Pyridoxamine 5'-phosphate oxidase
Amino acid sequence: MTTWTEFAAAEPALAAAARERFAVRKHATMATLRADGSPRISGTEVEFDERGLVLGSMSGALKARDLQRDPRVAVHSPTVDPAGEGGADWPGEAKVAGVARELPGEHEGGAHVFVVELTEVVVTDLDGGLRITSWHPGRGVEVRHRS
């Protein structure tokens, strides 16, 4: 697995683009797996700091229990409505996936704090069409275009 810090050191331009997309609004969307394997979508806040890509959760929240049982997670950046003619000024969006590891210790109000080890980072934007820039450990950055 790769930490956000390792990823950002190896791919600074893509890391900056992803962080920029996560910064457009406060609340992102997180997908976890319920005990029966079905998906759960929850709102979350994402923080990037010296620990890496950090997710928090209120004490006892279902999404925290999901991650304690099965740490696989995907997080989608906040989105904004396309602006400009035909959405030409759309800033794009980012997605990350990986494994969430809970940080031990006492956190304010009994909150759960998780750091995500990455298996995927994707930034989607417009470049005369749809441009999908993705990164996976061991494969590096790949760019695909759709018209």
